[in-house]
């Protein structure tokens, strides 16, 4: 029930209107007084909402005293709402003013639903190329959109962590100082058509945070990072044994040169 009410509100109905429509659909037909009594709200509010719904055509008012109301069946409702939404979208697209150029900016997206929603919208608009770097758990949530993009002829370049075929894991940079940070998340990044990118983190509790931008600096950084990681991955696949034989322990030392330890921890160790 709550999900149905949520979706009705998403379609533009108020909370009162949504509850009335569901109540009428459940009962078949009812008077305003009966609806108000069942919902436990004032009759004046119910009659005002019924008047709006009747004027818009979503609810029918029958003859008689007291008047009895009924809501359109689900198929009729869906057809009417869809037609009006499509007409409004078409008008908005053609008549919305188009201003001058906008400087690229960064904006945050909070919440798993909002992050995935923003990604899905952009994936569905991809025309040429999608570069994906994420874990398989998150990739599975976007499988349909990625497959549809490939069917449209969009080039898909991907790196999935969390499986046997995944590239080598990235070095972990410890935080500077003692500020506690969440460590249960999985990072991901997308670059679409080399002009839009999202960089974010999805956590075990289902929450998510991301940064979205069209700024060319971050777009280039993510593309270069992806290319370097994939080149290194392929080199290690082809020459892993040779690299290990040639560099031995020095191979790990090269990496440790650039992934520094927390200086506070180093100071404590030296003090001990």
Task: Summarize the model shown.
The protein is an alpha+beta fold and 272 residues long. 54% of the residues lie in helices and 18% in strands.
Task: Describe the protein in words.
- The longest helix is centred in the last third of the chain and has 32 residues, at 216-247.
- Strand 2 (59-61) and strand 3 form a beta hairpin.
- The model is unreliable at 163-170 and 263-272 (pLDDT under 50).
- The protein has 11 helices and 9 strands.
- The protein starts with a helix and ends with a helix.
- It is elongated and about 95 Å long.
- It has helices spanning 2-10, 15-27, 32-39, 43-56, 74-95, 112-125, 136-141, 143-151, 216-247, 249-258, 263-271, and strands at 30-31, 59-61, 68-71, 106-110, 129-135, 155-161, 186-192, 196-202, 208-213.
- Helix 3 (32-39) packs across helix 4 (43-56).
- The protein folds into 2 domains: 2-86, Arc Repressor Mutant, subunit A (Orthogonal Bundle); 106-260, Endonuclease, Chain A.
- With 272 residues, it is α+β, with helices and mostly antiparallel strands.
- The strands form 2 sheets. The chain has a 6-stranded mixed β-sheet, sandwiched between helices.
Topology of this protein?
Blueprint: H1 2-10, H2 15-27, E1 30-31, H3 32-39, H4 43-56, E2 59-61, E3 68-71, H5 74-95, E4 106-110, H6 112-125, E5 129-135, H7 136-141, H8 143-151, E6 155-161, E7 186-192, E8 196-202, E9 208-213, H9 216-247, H10 249-258, H11 263-271
Parallel strand pairs: 5-6
Antiparallel strand pairs: 1-3, 2-3, 4-9, 5-7, 7-8, 8-9
Q: Give the beta-strand count.
A: 9
Binned strand content: 15-25%
**Number of DSSP helices?**
11
The termini sit apart by 62 Å
H-E string: HHEHHEEHEHEHHEEEEHHH
The CATH homologous superfamily name of the largest domain equals Endonuclease Chain A
Helix proportion range: 40-55%
Largest sheet: 6 strands, mixed
* Shape call: elongated
Placed side by side, the strands forming the largest sheet appear as: 4-9-8-7-5-6
* pLDDT < 50 runs, ≥5 residues: 163-170, 263-272
Radius of gyration over all CA atoms, rounded:
28 Å
Overall CATH architecture of the largest domain: 2-Layer Sandwich
Class inferred from helices and paired strands: alpha+beta
Q: Please give the domain count.
A: 2
CATH-assigned fold name of the largest domain: Endonuclease, Chain A
CATH class of the largest domain: Alpha Beta
Mean pLDDT: 83
InterPro entries: ArsR-like_HTH, TrmB-like, Tscrpt_reg_TrmB_N, WH-like_DNA-bd_sf, WH_DNA-bd_sf
Keywords: DNA-binding
Pfam families: TrmB
Organism: Paenibacillus pseudetheri
């Amino acid at each position: 029930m709550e999900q149905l009410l949520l979706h009705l509100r998403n379609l533009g109905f108020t909370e009162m209107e949504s509850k009335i429509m569901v109540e009428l659909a459940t009962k078949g037909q009812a008077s305003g007084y009966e609806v108000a009594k069942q919902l436990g709200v004032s009759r004046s509010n119910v009659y005002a909402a019924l008047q709006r719904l009747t004027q818009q055509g979503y609810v029918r008012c029958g003859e008689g005293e007291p008047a009895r109301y009924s809501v359109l069946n689900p198929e009729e409702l869906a057809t009417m709402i869809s037609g009006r939404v499509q007409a409004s979208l078409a008008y908005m697209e053609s008549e919305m003013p188009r201003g001058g150029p906008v400087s690229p900016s960064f904006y945050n997206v909070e919440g798993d639903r909002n992050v995935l929603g923003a990604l899905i919208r952009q994936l569905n608009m991809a025309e040429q190329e999608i570069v994906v770097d994420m874990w398989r758990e998150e990739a599975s949530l976007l499988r349909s959109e990625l497959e549809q993009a490939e069917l449209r002829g969009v080039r898909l370049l991907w790196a999935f962590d969390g499986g046997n075929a995944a590239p080598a894991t990235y070095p972990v940079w410890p935080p500077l100082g003692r500020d506690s940070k969440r460590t249960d998340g999985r990072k991901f990044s997308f670059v679409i058509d080399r002009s839009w990118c999202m960089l974010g983190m999805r956590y075990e509790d289902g929450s998510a945070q991301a940064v979205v931008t069209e700024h060319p600096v971050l777009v280039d950084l993510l593309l270069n990072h992806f290319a370097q990681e994939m080149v290194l991955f392929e080199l290690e696949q082809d020459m892993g044994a040779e690299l290990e034989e040639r560099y031995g322990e020095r191979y790990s030392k090269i990496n440790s040169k650039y992934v520094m330890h927390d200086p506070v921890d180093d100071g404590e160790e030296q003090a001990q």
